[in-house]
Amino acid sequence: MICIQSRPNSIEPNSDTKDIWTKVRQLTKRRTDTSAVSGLTATSLNNHYTRVSTDDNHTPSRKQTVAPSDNQRLSEFDVFYQLDHLHHT
Known about the structure:
The chain has helices spanning 17-28, 42-52, 76-84. It is mostly helical.
């Protein structure tokens, strides 16, 4: 919470958040304008992070079976038993 003591009447009670943040920036002397950095674009950033996040030594993991095969059927009791014995979190 921000308490503005230097000018308590400078913000109207029915001000919206945009007006309040404008006053905060005025009081904290934050600049609202930003200048662009030469040579820095969204594409150059994307290309950079693509290069640094690519692992040339990556090998895909082997596939694991997580579901029963088609010839293995679960009964309603099997499902109930499995759900009933889950650990509480």
